Amino acid sequence: MGQVTWGRGTSVPASRFGGVTLPRSTPRDQGVDAAGLLAFLDAAEREELGLHGLVVARHGHVVAEAHWAPYAADRVHLAYSLSKTLTATAVGVLVGDRVLGLDDLVLERLPRQPAGSVAPGWERVRVRHCLSMTVGHDVDAWDRVGSRGAASPVGEDWLPRVLAVALDHEPGTTFTYDQVATYLLARVVHHVTGRGLSELLADRVLGPLGLPTPPWHRDPLGHEIGFSGAHLTTGTIASLAQLLLDGGVRDGVRLLDAAYVEEALRPVGPRNREESAGPDWRRGYGFSFWAQRHGCRGDGAFGQFLVVLPEQDAVVAITSENDVMQATLDALWAHVVPALGGPGASSDGSSDRALAARLAAVEVPPLRAGAGATLPEGDVVVQRRGGDVAPAYDEVRVDADGTRLALRRDGEWHEVAVSDGTWASSTWTGDRARLPLVASGGWVDEHVHRTRVLVVETPHSFSVEVDRRTGSADLAWRRLPLSGADPWALAVRPA
């Protein structure tokens, strides 16, 4: 079953587990039409938006919160490019402290590079260019830097590789969504303060909000990569959105500079030139925030959203597995925004109760085994045949009752607990990292075993189908991660 937190304007203490650190209320008490939120849930189900977590708050009060089991309030979720919002927030702290300026030259705020190693043009790039994605590249330069670190040796410095990529245009004259821009900001924060993003944010923003320090993917030197890799609870996303909506103030305490927040949330400079971009990706870009038809947002691949709605005095946080992100925004504009204090936006007790019941029941449906399937007499071991999970996974083993699956990778077996009709938890443990998984499935019939595996601290999942008749197995991602085809590349927890 899903998890729902519901109260009546009741202030709650900060959760050490990462829940929303805002008071709760009912939709009716905050002028929200619960029927509109129910319509959004209907649309999300109908259009297969793949929701994992949802928080809606108005007037600083949470009016709806749900987590699609086995996702949970205290479970972090890879935020992908929504991580840029945290990096921009850290920069905002330093701008407010007057230890960093928006017009500071980036090279003067980074470790000194050997003479002749920096491509021409970088000497004119300023902090605001990195924040607004106007560094001067024609396309995202990360592919020219190299991989996202999977093959990088420990101790390698990515900074020289980044600064060796030449600019195509004068800084500030063209918009390109560019990972290297935010990576440089993460390195600037560390060089200026001697502390990484995690430590600075924990001390100055997340800690005061009562929020946990998120795990991050890091470069070979141990720096947070900045442009991606933060793992956030849905509640953390909502609490950060509320801080931004409130101009950087929480409970009367200023955490972020007001002028910086105002500038960060409005579009600046050139706009997105991609012809394929949806309508909410063509309205301009602030400091790691997209302008949109209503308010602004930070977002991350596969449907991670931090939405700020000043006109409605509301915020929305979403985690999900969805590669058509415009569809999620369209559903928000069609159903949620009109419900937030618009004409006719009112609730009664019965619709509030109906919404609460719906939110409490949400789940990612687990797979079920076939009724009365004949079980094999012993373990079944088959060769990998197809699918886009990394080819290093070359053999699959299933025990006789179907409750334990094992995948062989480079000669080493990795086990996954499987449950029929419910979600079973496992953790892969390697030399350096741990990877939490949950899985469901079983023997569909006497020949076929199917499993769905959720890499549960990320948006991602993959399926494993074993067929005794062919002696083979297929391993396929539902949506291929940006880090590549190996599940281990998603690991962020230290062993």
Topology:
Elements: H1 34-46, E1 51-58, E2 61-67, E3 77-78, H2 83-96, H3 127-131, H4 142-145, H5 159-163, H6 179-193, H7 197-206, E4 231-232, H8 234-245, E5 249-250, E6 253-254, H9 258-264, E7 290-291, E8 296-300, E9 304-309, E10 314-320, H10 325-339, H11 349-360, E11 380-386, E12 393-398, E13 404-409, E14 412-417, E15 424-429, E16 433-443, E17 448-454, E18 461-467, E19 472-477, E20 493-494
Parallel strand pairs: 11-19
Antiparallel strand pairs: 1-2, 1-10, 3-4, 5-6, 7-8, 8-9, 9-10, 11-12, 12-13, 13-14, 15-16, 16-17, 16-20, 17-18, 18-19
Task: Name some characteristics of this structure.
495 residues, alpha+beta, Beta-lactamase, 2 domains, 10-stranded mixed beta sheet, 11 helices, globular, disordered N terminus
Describe what you observe in this structure.
With 495 residues, the chain is α+β, with helices and mostly antiparallel strands. The chain folds into two domains: 77-339, DD-peptidase/beta-lactamase superfamily (Beta-lactamase, 3-Layer(aba) Sandwich); 380-494, no CATH class. The protein contains eleven helices and 20 strands. The protein has helices at 34-46, 83-96, 127-131, 142-145, 159-163, 179-193, 197-206, 234-245, 258-264, 325-339, 349-360, and strands at 51-58, 61-67, 77-78, 231-232, 249-250, 253-254, 290-291, 296-300, 304-309, 314-320, 380-386, 393-398, 404-409, 412-417, 424-429, 433-443, 448-454, 461-467, 472-477, 493-494. The strands form four sheets. Strands 11, 12, 13, 14, 15, 16, 17, 18, 19 and 20 form a ten-stranded mixed β-sheet that branches. It has a six-stranded antiparallel β-sheet with strand order 2-1-10-9-8-7, with helices on both faces. Strands 3-4 form a two-stranded antiparallel ribbon. A hairpin with a 4-residue loop joins strand 9 (304-309) and strand 10. Helix 1 packs antiparallel against helix 10 (325-339) and helix 2 runs antiparallel to helix 9 (258-264). The longest helix is centred in the middle third of the chain and has 15 residues, at 179-193. It is globular. The model is unreliable at 1-17 (pLDDT under 50). This is CubicO group peptidase, beta-lactamase class C family. Residues 53-323 form the Beta-lactamase-related domain. Pfam families: Beta-lactamase (PF00144). It comes from Nocardioides scoriae. InterPro entries: Beta-lactam-related, Beta-lactam/transpept-like, Diverse_Enzym_Activities.
